[in-house]
Write a structure and sequence with these properties.
The chain is globular and about 80 Å long. Helices cover 56% and strands 12% of the residues. It is of the alpha+beta class. Among the domains are: 157 residues, Butyryl-CoA Dehydrogenase, subunit A, domain 3 (Up-down Bundle); 136 residues. It has a 5-stranded mixed beta barrel with strand order 4-5-11-7-6. Bound molecules: flavin-adenine dinucleotide (FAD). Flavin-adenine dinucleotide (FAD) binds next to strand 3, strand 5 and helix 11.
Length: 596
Amino acid sequence: MPTYSAPIKDIQFLLHDYFNLQKYNNIQSFKEATPELIDAILEEAAKISENVFQPLNLPADTQGCRLENGKVITPDGFKDAYQQYLEGGWQGMTGDEKYGGQGLPQTLGLVLNEIMVSANWGFAMYPGLTKGATESIYAWGTDEQKQKYLPKMFSAEWSGTMNLTEPHCGTDLGLLRTKAEPQTDGSYKITGTKIFISAGDHDLTENIIHLVLARITGAPEGVKGISLFIVPRNTINDDGTVGDNNGVSCGSLEEKMGIHSNATCVMNFDAATGYLLGEEHKGMKAMFTMMNEARLGVAIQGLAIAEVAQQNAVIYANDRIQGRALTGPQNKDAKADPIMVHPDVRRMLMTNRAFVEGARAMAVWAGILVDTTRSHSDEKERVKAEELLALLTPVLKSYFTDQGVEAASRALQCFGGHGYIHEWGMEQFLRDSRIAPIYEGTNGVQAMDLIGRKLPANGGSAVRAYFDLIQTFINDNKTNEGLAGYMPHLEKALGRLQASTMWLMQNGMSNPNNAGSAAHYYLNLMALVTLAYFWADMAKKAQEMIASGEGNKEFLNNKIITANFFYSHILPETSSLKVKIEAGSESVMALDAQSF
Ligand SMILES: Cc1cc2nc3c(=O)[nH]c(=O)nc-3n(C[C@H](O)[C@H](O)[C@H](O)COP(=O)(O)OP(=O)(O)OC[C@H]3O[C@@H](n4cnc5c(N)ncnc54)[C@H](O)[C@@H]3O)c2cc1C
């Protein structure tokens, strides 16, 4: 059976030592989040995740969800686990206090999300979708809508979903057909079929609040005619109690590769009563609030699966005895050494480690940017954070989820044939991980979003601010002897990214296929440069703490070793990425479609 232990020490290093959340005293949501409170919350999150959610992960994968008499039944143990989640007050942790939330930082929410997903991805998606739905209602709802839905959703009594996809439209939402007919009382009748709806129906909550994209009768074609609606599964009485079914049903459940414990539903809306959220025909704008939030959540899924797969691979590598170390026997009393002695096994484990710890730093930074956009006292800081966050959200979503799959695969490889066998749990991690590069906008589309929309936005001000951030760090630390192993390499990698950006500007406009074929490589190049910045900066912090006698020396030394591995074995990929970007689209597009 796989195990999981929440990486509290690493999280504490990031929150307390490296980022030092206390210094952000201009951000409202950080004011009450004292280190003591954060540590207490982390301890409780670790307890419920390790003891309640994680033991259900493997059996729930085997059992899956089932549809009985039109109702979805979740795997054994989920109802009880959800009740404990509800009673712990976890759902409303980052919500506005005005609507029953606790007003704690989004940064903390991201960290807790990682822990829950590592423990049980399928389970974590039920509350995860609710979080996305509450973000949209909070951003776009009228005060009456907020009062009606948010307290019940923050308390986890009601859950939420997002309904975009239809059988003939996934990426291209402009094609969607679900109809919304205006009624005299201001509501709409929603009719249509949505597919692949995560947590579309289940037995964990007394009501499910669906957010549904639909086209109002007579609306323009394409994305400009799409509106967003709140469609509760069950009607809500004037006193707030839950009434009858509102014409919303689950037609069937998808049989899928992974995340078996999360219900993926075909949803039918049969003249269901819906309420406009935001403005008519501006549904995509409102849905993007939810999707940006959800994209960060999906990025965290990549990190979380890498963490848990890695933990199990490390335990196995120290335990499994096969062969001898190349430099001579290490375990002389036994007939063989643990596979941890083999450099090839180390290569896989170090690659995973460098990704996980670097990505976690980047994720916490993204969390701080979210909090800055929402409650920093200085408007200039809010705008700057918004731009950087918009630039980097596709990078986090795409790079983290691709690496989540790679890391799960590498961790499985450490188990040899046993990794392929169900009971070890590694093949579940790999199967579960595979959805994240697909949903919330495929990774290919994220890369197009980065280069097509985010780079040129506001005359390129976000990417200029990003370059400035890293260049300033390089300038400030060029003469720091302790960082001599990093700074020249970071500077060269940044130079490659800047040159590739220039190449895109010169060659992507004249031939858009050049931009399309470079997009994936460019996104990965930006991810590696960002990770390199965090690794150098974390190594600097670790060196300073060792010099001043703070912290745990072994932990800090290990940070420096991992930074060295990142710089020597991963960052060099930036060279080949630049070459691939500049190769252009000629050979990519040359073959006739019929010749494939
Ligand atoms: C388990 C699961 C859960 C899901 N949960 C939800 C949910 O809760 N709510 C919801 O609404 N949807 C959900 N989805 C749907 C998911 O978001 C879509 O599958 C995804 O957006 C891709 O759409 P598609 O499957 O139609 O693929 P398509 O859009 O047909 O894409 C096929 C391929 O073409 C590529 N492609 C398409 N257009 C472009 C382009 N312009 N440029 C470059 N490449 C392109 C894509 O990257 C992809 O590789 C879920 C799907 C699954 C499998």
